[in-house]
Sequence to fold (282 residues):
Amino acid sequence: MRWRKSRQEEAIRKAADLLLASERAVALTGAGISTPSGIPDFRTPGKGLWEFVDPAEVASIWGYKTQPERFYAWIRPLLEKMEKAQPNAAHHALAELEALGILKWIITQNIDSLHQAAGSRRVLEIHGHTRTATCLSCGYQAGTEDFWEEVKEGRVPRCPRCGGLMKPDVVLFGELLPPKALIRAQEASLAADVMLVVGSSLEVMPAADLPRLTRRSGGKLIIVNLGPTSADHLADVLIRGDVVDILPRLVQRVREGIEDGRLARSVRGGDGEGSDGPSGRD
Ligand SMILES: [Zn+2]
Fold:
């Protein structure tokens, strides 16, 4: 046990060194960073929201169009959990890495907005989010809070302009990913000299492909996850553990490194506003 602990400590130190030496680090996060905040991993078979329904049917764009009430009955418990959820220590750790000028982007598969709640500003949500909804008929977009009461009461929200179906701006099965977020995520992954994967098993495309883009262009890969991932064999540092335990320890090591003056030169001088530094593209 002690041996495992010290090996984990060594891996955390190595990951911190990679981040300190980096100039264009990005993070990629999945469901595993939000499960400690009480949000179920709704893609895990036999668990949580996938238990009684076929997601490819209920949470697909064609399922939505034909039986929107089934979709809302399925997603309502998730929305209720998301409404109550608070960011955890791992979300806060990533927000701090951004504030320190180290993380340039967080690419997330999550739709829960918890990175923003923790203070992260440069977040690419490749599966969309639930903050807004769009009419499938006329394209009218509105904040979801306008529809929340209706959804809670079991009704399907309708467009105030044309009466069409309002769909939350999350990506359903059979839908294209938001092209802008995806293209920026791919660009950031290609440009990254370090990618920190947190809480994703890297089984869902196209997220699974992003670490490979980073590796292909010569970047380093750090993976922090409770279970195995599809890219473990590519990782320069592989840390198996609980993200809410590991991430704060990793940031502590990074902070110590900064105090020791070991930050990459181009990043040094960041004063906490690092997110709008020279690599900013928007
Ligand atoms: Zn409409």
Q: What stands out?
A: The two ends are 47 Å apart (CA to CA).
